C-alpha cells in the first residue's frame, strides 16, 4: 500500500509541520524513487537515513531493498515512524543527525551490520546542511556515498568548479574526498508545506582515499582563509587569516608553483593540496 501523503499523515497523527525545525516534507513518489535508486546499489545494503521525518523516503528505501537505520530527533516524527513501520526493515534511532556516528549507526541496522562503508540519504533541513556535510567529511572513510536533498543554491555550490563564483570551502573539501553531481532539481511545490526556494538532489560518491596534505586540520583553515576575503589576492587573504608567517607563505607559493597574486576561487583541489604540503607540518604550539 502506498505511503499516505504528507498532509494525510500529519492529519492522521494530529500534527503540523514545524517551521522552526525547517520541516518541509516531500511526498512526490517519482522523486523519492529516484533518490532511493541512487542511494541503494544492491538489495540488503544498509542505508542511514538522516532526518527521516514522516517516512516517505524511508518507505522507498525499503522498497528498493535497503536495511534502513532512520535517524530522527523530533519526538513527534519518531512517533509517526514507529506507527508506520513495524515490519522489521527499519531501525529507528532518535538522535541528532548532525552529530551522528555513521559507522555506529550502521551496526544497528535490521539484520546486523555489514562489512564495508555505509550509504547515507536524507532530506536535510536547510539550517542543518553545513553541520551534516562536515559530519560526512569527518567520517568520509566510513561512508561510501551520500544522496541528499538540499537547497538548490547549496547543491550548485557543492558541484561547482574552480573559477566560478559558486566554488568555495565545501566545494573544495567535498571534491577532495569524492565526486559531486546534481541529479535533479526539485521545485518548491513538491513539498508540504512548500519552502521559499527550490531544492536539488545531490549525489556525493566518496572514494575513501586520504587527502594528500601535510595536515588535514590546517588544510581546512588554509582553504577557509583563502575564500575568507574573495576580493583579496591569495597572498593577502592568507596573511590576514594568519595561516603561517609571511616568509613561510612566500616559500610555499614558490614550492607549489602557485601565483600568490591569484584569488582563492581560481585554485583547483590539487593546487590547494600542493600549497598545504609546501607549508609542511604545522609547528607544535
Give me a quick take on this structure.
The protein is of the alpha/beta class.
What does this structure look like?
- The protein contains 12 helices and 9 strands.
- The protein has 285 residues and is α/β, with parallel strands linked by helices.
- It has 2 domains: 6-206, Rossmann fold, CATH 3.40.50; 216-279, Helicase, Ruva Protein, domain 3, CATH 1.10.8.100.
- A 7-stranded mixed β-sheet has the order 4-3-2-5-6-9-7. Strands 1-8 form a two-stranded antiparallel sheet.
- Helix 3 (56-63) links the parallel strand 2 and strand 3 (67-71).
- The longest helix is centred in the last third of the chain and has 13 residues, at 216-228.
- The model has no long low-confidence stretch (mean pLDDT 93).
Integer average pLDDT: 93
Number of domains: 2
Total of helices: 12
Number of strands: 9
Fourth-tier CATH superfamily name of the largest domain: Vaccinia Virus protein VP39
Structure keywords:
seven-stranded mixed β-sheet, 285 residues, 18% strand, Helicase, Ruva Protein, domain 3, alpha/beta, 9 strands, two-stranded antiparallel ribbon, Rossmann fold
What's the topology here?
Layout: H1 6-12, E1 25-26, H2 29-39, E2 46-50, H3 56-63, E3 67-71, H4 75-84, E4 90-93, H5 102-106, E5 118-123, H6 129-138, E6 143-151, H7 152-158, H8 169-177, E7 178-186, E8 191-192, E9 199-206, H9 216-228, H10 234-240, H11 246-256, H12 269-279
Parallel strand pairs: 2-3, 2-5, 3-4, 5-6
Antiparallel strand pairs: 1-8, 6-9, 7-9
Amino acid at each position: 500500500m502506498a505511503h499516505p501523503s504528507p498532509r494525510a499523515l500529519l492529519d492522521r497523527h494530529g500534527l503540523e509541520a514545524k517551521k522552526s525545525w525547517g520541516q518541509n516534507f516531500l511526498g512526490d513518489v517519482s522523486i523519492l524513487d529516484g533518490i532511493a535508486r541512487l542511494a541503494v546499489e544492491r538489495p540488503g545494503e544498509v542505508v542511514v537515513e538522516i532526518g527521516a521525518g514522516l517516512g516517505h523516503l524511508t518507505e522507498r528505501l525499503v522498497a528498493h531493498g535497503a536495511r534502513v537505520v532512520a535517524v530522527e530527533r523530533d519526538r513527534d516524527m519518531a512517533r509517526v515512524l514507529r506507527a508506520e513501520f513495524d515490519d522489521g526493515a527499519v531501525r529507528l534511532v532518535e538522535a541528532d543527525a548532525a552529530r551522528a556516528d555513521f559507522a555506529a549507526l550502521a551496526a544497528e541496522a535490521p539484520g546486523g551490520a555489514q562489512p564495508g562503508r555505509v550509504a547515507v540519504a536524507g532530506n536535510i533541513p536547510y539550517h542543518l546542511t553545513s553541520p551534516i556535510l562536515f559530519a560526512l567529511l569527518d567520517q568520509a572513510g566510513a561512508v561510501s556515498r551520500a544522496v541528499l536533498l538540499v537547497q538548490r543554491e547549496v547543491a550548485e555550490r557543492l558541484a561547482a568548479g574552480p573559477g566560478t563564483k559558486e566554488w568555495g570551502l565545501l566545494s573544495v573539501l567535498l571534491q577532495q574526498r569524492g565526486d559531486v553531481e546534481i541529479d535533479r532539481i526539485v521545485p518548491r511545490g513538491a513539498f508540504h508545506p512548500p519552502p521559499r526556494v527550490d531544492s536539488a538532489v545531490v549525489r556525493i560518491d566518496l572514494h575513501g582515499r586520504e587527502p594528500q596534505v601535510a595536515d588535514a586540520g590546517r588544510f581546512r583553515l588554509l582553504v577557509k582563509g583563502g575564500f575568507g576575503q574573495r576580493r583579496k589576492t591569495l597572498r593577502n587573504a592568507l596573511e590576514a587569516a594568519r595561516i603561517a608567517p609571511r616568509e613561510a607563505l612566500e616559500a610555499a607559493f614558490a614550492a607549489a608553483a602557485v601565483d600568490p597574486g591569484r584569488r582563492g576561487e581560481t585554485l583547483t583541489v590539487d593546487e590547494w593540496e600542493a600549497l598545504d604540503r609546501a607549508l609542511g607540518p604545522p609547528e607544535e604550539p
